[in-house]
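Journal club prep — side note

Before the paper discussion, L.F. wants everyone to see what a predicted structure for a comparable chain looks like in token form. Sequence:
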Amino acid sequence: MLLALCSVPARAADPNNKSGVTFRKTQVELTANAGSAPNPPPSASAPPSADTLTSPPLITSKSAPSEMEDLGEKRATLQGEVRYAKAKLEAAQKEFAMRTAAGDLEKAEHLDQEVKDWQARYDAAKAQLEEVDKQMVDGAQGRSAVVTADEVVVPGENLEVFVNEDPSFNGIYQVRRGGYIIMPQVGRIAVAGKTLSAAEAAVKRALQSSQLHNASVMIERKQGADIDNGPLIYLSGEFREPRPWHIPTGMTPTLVNVILSSGGVTDKADLTRVRVMRIAASKSVVEEVNVAKILEGGGLTSDVTLGEGDVITIPAGPASLVYITGNVAHQGSFPLKQGERISAYAAILQNGGFARFADQRRVYILRALPDGTKAKLPVDINAIKRGQRPDVQLQSNDILVVPEKFWSL
């Protein structure tokens, strides 16, 4: 009887109507276009049936949530455009200033026009973003007349996500004003305007498209303010404290100051291959940055400006080891931390010192060369102690050999 009431007459009367009936458990929902005509009111003379008196409403219009999802996707695209245009504008302005100071007027004239072009693009994207924000605010105010928060996910809610196959994705995620949640390693997932089951399906699709072969997702509403409000940047990999990181009010975050302000990185971190993931044009964009070079002062202009929802991943670098063998107290290998400088004599002392019959004058280092051969570098420890020769700095994969004295036997 419900099917007859909901959809059959409307589909027969208008062949262009795209309405459809979907089933989930015992409920029937009607999905309608924004332009389709509203259902006619029931006749005043017809008494309500027993089903009408005892059953909750089963028909929910989805036009408003669909519009909200579209606005959320459009807003995410414009946010990426604003960040991109701003970064290009700042880079062009710096280059223009440098060329002007150097007296390169021809190049400066060209860069002046480039600055104007990027300024216009930035202003246009920012104006469009402000207009979309206004539309979303207006839509949020009027949405309560169509659907309620009990029926669909709305911005501001906290959702608790459970992924059976990989608990690392479990957690509490806030639905942002743009209508999405942000999952590390995945990015933005639009959930506003969806029922919980539809949100589960959206998260499942996102996980299976990039992270998991198969995903079983459950979502529950989490009451109360379990997470702080405010824009977040997500830290993963070899951070000392991988976590969501709140952007302080008034701060324009960059890759370097976020790494330094968040507590730093582990000894295994490879700062030459730091990855920044962000969403642009509804697609995940990954940029690789050599932070080690920036910290050394060789690339300050290449620091990356970050925005809300960006994900920073610092990978673990290959093991960098130095090997000590021969007549020493402790043979073996020890890690050479990134940027660490240690000499041959200091390395021997740190690992217990010399054995009884060590020939300190004939110590040497075996070092691999680019052509695959090994060079033998002499290290006269006795001369180093007397200040007659400089100590030799060790490099990754060096083999430090301490031979035995000929007359020890």
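L.F.'s comment for the group: The longest strand covers residues 274-280. Keep this in mind when we get to the figures.
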